Amino acid sequence: MTIDNPTESGLPEGSTGATSTAPLQPQTQDDPSNITPQELTGFVEKLLKQLNDKLDGVSTQIFTRMDEMSSRIEDLEKSIGELIQDADEDSKTPPASKTT
C-alpha cells in the first residue's frame, strides 16, 4: 500500500497541505500488511505537522487582513467625523448676501 497521494489521506483534491517537496509515504510499497506501526505513525505525524504549519500560515494571513481592515475602518470613521463636522460648520455660517 502506497500512501503518497494526499487525497487518499483525507485532504481535498488540489490541497496538499505540504510545506516540503518530499513525498509522504510509508517505506513499504508492496503490501499493506508490511507497513509497520512506526512507519504509519511517522507518516501521520509528518502529515499532521504539515497541516499544522499550513493552518498557522493561514491564521497569520487572516489576522494580518483583520488588522488592515480595522485600520481602514478607523480611517473611514475619522473621515466621516470630519465630514460631519464640516457640514455642521457650513450650516452655522450665514449665507452670503447677494447684491443685485
Number of strands: 0
Radius of gyration: 30 Å
Kindly state the percentage of residues in helix: 55-70%
Kindly report how far apart the N and C termini lie. 97 Å
pLDDT < 50 stretches: 1-14
* SSE topology string: H
How would you describe the shape?
rod-shaped
Structural class: mainly alpha
Chain-averaged pLDDT: 78
The proportion of residues in beta strands is: under 5%
Number of continuous helical runs: 1
Largest sheet: none
Tag the structure with descriptive keywords.
100 residues, mainly alpha, 1 helix, 0% strand, disordered N terminus
Summary of the model, kept short:
The protein is mainly alpha-helical.
Textual characterization of the structure:
This protein has 100 residues and is mainly α. Helices cover 56% and strands 0% of the residues. It is built from one helix and no strands. The protein has one helix at residues 37-92. The longest helix is centred in the middle third of the chain and has 56 residues, at 37-92. The protein is rod-shaped. The N and C termini lie far apart (97 Å). Mean pLDDT is 78; it is low at 1-14.
Helix/strand layout:
Layout: H1 37-92
